[in-house]
Design a protein that fits this description.
Layout (H helix, E strand, L loop, with lengths): L1 H6 L6 E2 L6 E2 L1 H12 L7 E2 L7 H15 L3 H22 L1 H6 L4 H18 L3 H12 L17 H21 L15 H5 L21 E2 L10 H10 L10 E8 L1 H6 L8 H5 L2 H11 L15 H7 L2 E5 L1 H6 L6 E7 L4 E6 L12 H12 L8 H9 L8 H5 L6
Parallel strand pairs: 5-6
Antiparallel strand pairs: 1-2, 3-4, 5-7, 7-8
Helix pairs in contact: 2-3, 2-8, 3-4, 3-6, 3-8, 4-6, 6-7, 6-8, 7-8, 13-14
Length: about 400
């Protein structure tokens, strides 16, 4: 992505993370959002089955840094982006959208990015509506990647494309290039052409509990969000992964329908496909532990120990958990041992969800573990303190300069 950005013109002051380069806001948003979506460890808004953080935050930072916006403006923009993504996902009935073959992050997040940009640009409501009209003609994102073993890198781009298109829509609207004003609720608007069993009233309904940004799940494990409750349950039935895998003869998993229709490729041939394969993830977690990114590397895709376990995994639909989805990404797992005994555990809300949250220390540890391989001097505790002090900073520029590091 960095090579692509440099080849297509890097003029601009928006930071590209993890390198000293800068680019235009749209290109920086594209590159950084793709990177943020690249390890299957970004946040999830469960009801919309989407990852708003990668595109919304990447775009908001790309726009705010060269404008030297203050923290209040940045946070307001990010909040608006999350709010739009969550409400659109609810109104279109995201779970059915996925069944119909569209990836919610790519489909919804661009509208959130446009809203974030509109906040920073000072748009009025009409200009925002017309910018959404432009975004409507750029929205898409096929789920075909979930059905194949290779050619899956496009899924990483879905976060980046949403960021790129959202910024483009806002930029064009700022130049008085407009789209239709009923992009969300119109006859051929997003809710009607992509939604299934739609609830358009959810676009503007009062909050029952909290804003959408407070309904976010953080990932503890580097795989599809749907699997996290299964991994928590696997931790329980294996006594913290202490049971010898050789003594387990069968894994049976029950959960929402999407587990069995989207996630049972048993011989993935790419990192992304492996992280999207429930059988492979069960094998990887059993052998390497659930938090390791190592088993998803090209070197481990043919690991016979992982694949032997993957072949022992059966996935079934559980009607009761389907009824709770997507408010809860619950699942259960049964393991059968060589002595004939069966151990079972069910988890409704995995670690990292609002109902079972990760602590700030957990998030700092996650940050440090991910950045450790590049031997960077950036530490999670320092970043957390810097973010907390942003409200007292005149500009956000200094904070994000830390993320550029060296080439």
């Amino acid at each position: 992505m960095r090579e692509w950005a440099n080849a297509h013109g890097s003029k601009g002051q928006s930071p590209l993370f993890a390198c000293p380069d800068s680019a235009s806001p749209a290109i920086a948003a594209f590159v950084n959002a793709t990177a943020a979506h690249g390890l299957e460890l970004d946040d999830t808004h469960d009801e919309s089955i989407s990852h708003p953080g990668a595109p919304v935050i990447a775009a908001a930072v790309a726009l705010a840094v060269p404008r030297e916006s203050n923290a209040d403006a940045l946070f307001a923009a990010i909040n608006a982006g999350y709010e739009v993504v969550g409400r659109i996902g609810a109104a279109t009935n995201a779970a059915r959208v996925v069944e119909h073959g569209f990836h919610p992050t790519s489909l919804f997040a661009g509208f959130g990015v446009t809203a974030a940009a509109a906040c920073l640009y000072g748009f009025d409501a009409t200009r925002l509506q017309r910018a959404w009209g432009l975004m409507l003609s750029m929205a898409g994102g096929s789920m075909q990647f979930s059905q194949e073993t290779v050619g899956t890198t496009v899924k990483r781009l879905h976060g980046g494309l949403a960021a790129l298109h959202g910024v483009m829509a806002a930029d064009l609207a700022a130049l008085d290039i407009y789209g239709p004003e009923q992009a969300l609720e119109g006859r051929y608007g997003l809710v009607n052409i992509f939604g299934r069993d739609q609830e358009p009233a959810r676009l503007s309904a009062p909050h029952a509990d909290a804003p959408e940004i407070h309904r976010i799940s953080f990932k503890a494990y580097p795989c599809c969000r749907f699997f996290h409750s299964t991994l928590d349950a696997l931790h329980e039935v294996t006594d913290g992964f202490s049971i010898d895998a050789q003594t387990i003869t069968r894994y049976r998993i029950g959960g929402p329908e999407l587990l069995s229709t989207q996630h049972v490729v048993r011989r993935p041939q790419s990192e992304m496909a492996a992280q999207y394969s429930l059988p492979f993830v069960i094998g990887a977690a059993t052998i390497f532990g659930p938090r390791s990114v190592e088993p998803y590397s090209d070197a481990e895709l043919a690991n016979k120990n992982i694949l032997e376990i993957a072949d022992q995994v059966d996935v079934v639909i559980d009607a009761s958990l389907q009824a709770k989805f997507p408010d809860h990404f619950g699942s259960w797992i049964e393991i059968e041992l060589r002595d004939g005994s069966v151990r079972r555990a069910e988890v409704l809300d995995s670690i990292g969800t609002p109902a079972n949250p990760m602590t700030t220390d957990d998030l700092i540890d996650k940050f440090d573990s991910l950045i450790a391989p590049i031997d960077n001097v950036l530490h999670g505790g320092d970043v957390a303190r810097a973010i907390k002090s942003l409200n007292n900073a005149a500009s956000i520029k200094a904070l994000f300069a830390r993320f550029q590091g060296s080439a």
